[in-house]
Task: structure prediction
Amino acid sequence: MMKRIRHYCSPSLIKLTAVLIILMLLGMTLTGCESRTNDPVEEVKIGVLTYDEYDTFINAMTKHMTKWCRQKEKEEDIRITIDIVGAKKSQLTQNDQARKFIAENYDVLCVNLVDRTDASGIIDKAIANDVPVIFFNREPVEEDLSRWDKLYYVGAIARQSGELQAKIITDALSDPERFAEIDVNNNGTIQYVMLEGEAGHQDSLVRTNVCTAALVDAGFSLEKLGDEYANWDRDQARAKMIELIDRYPFQIEMVIANNDDMALGALDVLQEQDYPLDPFVVGINGTEDALEAIRTMKLDGSVYNDAKGQGETIMEMAYDLGTGKDFPDTIEVIFDKYVFTPYSIITYDNVQQYITEES
Ligand code: BGC
Result:
């Protein structure tokens, strides 16, 4: 018996057992490593940088971003840190904010540039630290965006907003009764003022040019009385409108604004001054206040700029980049870089649909 046992414990058997144990340990270590790499990501850290903290449209977008993250956390059992900082219109401040996020190991940056021609400071840091960047709303120049395959842009096509704004106007002017109401001095020409967003912003430049060109193409006779920058801002638009009314009392028949806040600023002044004419006023964005003004027939129309769609798309992309997933097919990425949401027309006839969607 003893002999047998000794036989079973022969040196070759010991060697074999040792090899088996080593193989088992190796196997365990390998599986352990494997499961570590397959471990679900526990936290995604997203840094959102906006050009300014007082912009109505951008704030609507960031509100939808936060909402999306809270919902995703519930669905996926994952922690999502979303930190939103405004740059007070200083590119240097924004570069510094990006540097801090990168130093604090944020996984993705979502950047609404202050100066869209000056993205290189942020891009250099992002490339050096392998942190993807999704730019939004203020489109970087192509040369910058093409520097790295982990740079993206989410926005909307400015040309389309100009075309649709022109369509709201031409639809109204094509109705002879409406034309007669707007053309108060009855000279067959519409005297108008233009409130522009911001010099150098793609949406400002393109909306202004495309809208006015489309009106001329449609064969209407227009006379531009004034053209002022009001930096997307309701108060600045009010100040500009006061000046314009001083310069052109009883002459302004139409106000075309590059966004809703400026259109509402113009309306504020028209109401406060009890302006004797009832100019046709149009904006762009479809903000909450603008929808209400359209519903109550103060604002004649706006072009819906999908803050919700853009905000949610940016977060979906940031989340996928942070967790190493591919973007879903529902996100159409053009040239592996650009995602655009469509604009649409809002007038009194369909405003209720937008109010319902927003709430
Ligand atoms: C919006 C403006 C906004 C601007 C900020 C534009 O697309 O229409 O309301 O102020 O972006 O960059």
Notes: DSSP finds 14 helices and twelve strands in the chain.
